[in-house]
Design goal:
This protein is mainly alpha-helical. It has one domain (8-26, 43-316). The chain is built from twelve helices and two strands, in the order αββααααααααααα. The chain has a two-stranded antiparallel ribbon with strand order 1-2. Helix 5 crosses helix 8 (192-214) and helix 6 packs parallel to helix 11. It is globular, with a radius of gyration of 19 Å. The two termini are 36 Å apart.
Length: 328
């Protein structure tokens, strides 16, 4: 795969995004601020559909590999887009997510060898998808975080050859296109559920392939920052006997925006930077031996938990005095 093909894909995806934004405005596919929002003005929703288009292009360029994965991606993207339009009941979305993750599982090499892990794999897969969806709340977050991981995986694929290169290259192009429209003080569009869920599903597929190729689960820490924020926020809400399905502004990134009044892009950049440092550490540890990797696999999540709890305890006591600046 050469740079000309990637550049051509970038032009295609940029044109697709422009067309979608025009249609979304015409058909009023608009995200309007509510009690959970970190933005203050109506903005086009669903711009992350470009990630599914990128996967579609890669699917044809690579000669139609992994049909079950792509079917699962299309299914989960479709239900997420419908949820962007109509706000579907959670049970329908969760059922489709289970089916989609099951289809992803069928595209793994010798899936029957891992049949005993299917129930746990389905739940973990759905958990990853929803965790990434929870974190799509401010401008630049999905774009920056996604680029950090896709570019890391792109580099690793050159070393290990664990997946088809077009999916990685086109996903990177899609993220750059989306960043152009989203990673700004006043976003032109948001990813929507269709974007954050589709990207999460693609990352999940790539990470599972990488772990199976290398036999090393430490690569799952490429999602450590999202996992820490999403997981610990849910734990705190459960301990406080809150309904975790109700809108809120209690994620750490939301507290940084609404309590410290940090600009969206600063917070998104911080999250991406922390994950980039973790990714670089994991790459450095890869040849160091399993004992050191196991220690790192414990130390990294523990460090994130300490940072989260310390930061949250300080921020939760601070009353918001005004709306955050630099909102979409």
């Amino acid at each position: 795969m050469n740079w000309f093909v990637y550049s051509l894909a970038g032009v295609l995806l940029f044109t697709t995004e422009l067309l979608y934004i025009s249609l979304a405005v015409q058909f009023r596919i608009i995200d309007r601020p509510n009690e959970r929002s970190s933005h203050t003005r109506p903005t086009v929703r669903g711009g992350g559909i470009v990630f599914w288009v990128a996967a579609l292009a890669a699917f044809f360029v690579d000669g139609l590999p992994h049909p079950c994965f792509f079917a699962g991606l299309t299914l989960i993207a479709s239900i997420s887009f419908l949820d962007d339009l109509f706000s579907l009941p959670g049970r329908y979305r969760f059922l489709v997510q289970l089916v989609s993750v099951g289809l992803l599982w069928l595209d793994l090499p010798d899936p029957l060898l891992y049949v005993g892990w299917v129930p746990a794999g389905l739940l973990v897969g759905c958990g990853v998808v929803n965790a990434c969806n929870f974190m799509d709340g401010i401008n630049g977050m999905t774009a920056f975080y996604g680029l950090v991981n896709v570019l890391t995986l792109l580099w690793l694929n050159g070393v290990m050859d664990f997946t088809d290169p077009a999916l990685l290259g086109f996903s990177a192009a899609g993220l750059l296109v989306f960043a152009f429209f989203n990673a700004r003080r006043k976003a032109v569009c948001f990813a929507g559920d269709v974007g954050s869920v589709s990207l999460a599903f693609i990352l999940l597929f790539l990470l599972v392939q990488l772990v199976m190729k290398s036999g090393n689960p430490i690569y799952l820490l490429f999602l450590a920052v999202y996992g820490a924020d999403s997981g610990l926020t849910i734990v705190h809400r459960l301990l406080n006997r809150e309904n975790i399905f109700r809108p809120h502004k209690l994620h750490l990134f939301q507290l940084l925006v609404h309590r410290l009044h940090w600009p969206h892009l600063r917070v998104a950049g911080l999250y991406a930077l922390v994950q980039a440092v973790i990714n670089a550490l994991i790459l450095w540890l890869e040849p160091q031996g399993r004992t050191i990797q196991i220690l790192a696999g414990v130390a990294i999540p523990a460090g994130l938990i300490v940072i989260y709890e310390w930061s949250r305890s300080r921020l939760i006591k601070q009353k918001p005095q005004r709306e955050a600046v630099a909102v979409g």
